């Protein structure tokens, strides 16, 4: 079981470093426009789009490195889960990008968001494993 959890942690780490790194280079990330628009709405246009995407990139790469390193996994997982909750914001803030027929027919963007349910489940399993380690 521990090997499976380690593989889940490493998988999330690779995905987050990879997707996060793409956001450092304009137009490489397919989520760039959606992320910028969502952050604009959530922060009342207080953060410039080019800065907000870089901050998001740094957050995602940091989460990825945290998962890959295995250090402070409990804290990394809490930050990760918070980030994952925020990824659902476009479903409510920008439904025109997420649905062809709300609330059941997703666009490709909507599918991209909803797949995060699996990531959240993996994060919960990793977090529970960290709690179990503390009890032992």
UniProtKB/TrEMBL annotation:
Membrane topology of the entry: Multi-pass membrane protein
Pfam families: DoxX (PF07681)
InterPro entries: DoxX
Record key words, sorted: Membrane, Transmembrane, Transmembrane helix
Keyword Magnesium recorded: no
Locations listed in the record: Membrane
Gene Ontology terms: cellular component: membrane
TM helices/strands, residue ranges: 7-26, 46-68, 75-93, 105-127
Zinc-finger keyword on record: no
Signal peptide stretch: none
Protein name per the record: Doxx family protein
Organism, scientific name: Arcobacter ellisii
């Amino acid at each position: 079981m521990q090997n499976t959890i380690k593989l889940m942690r490493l998988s999330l780490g690779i995905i987050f470093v990879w997707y996060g790194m793409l956001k450092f280079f304009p137009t490489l990330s397919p989520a760039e426009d959606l992320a910028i628009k969502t952050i604009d709405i959530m922060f009342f246009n207080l953060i410039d789009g080019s800065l907000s995407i870089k901050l998001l990139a740094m957050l995602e790469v940091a989460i990825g490195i945290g998962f890959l390193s295995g250090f402070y996994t409990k804290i990394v997982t809490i930050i990760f889960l918070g980030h994952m909750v925020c990824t659902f914001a476009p479903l409510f803030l920008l439904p025109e990008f997420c649905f062809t027929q709300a609330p059941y027919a997703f666009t490709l963007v909507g599918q991209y968001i909803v797949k995060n349910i699996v990531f959240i489940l993996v994060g919960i399993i990793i977090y529970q494993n960290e709690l179990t380690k503390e009890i032992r």
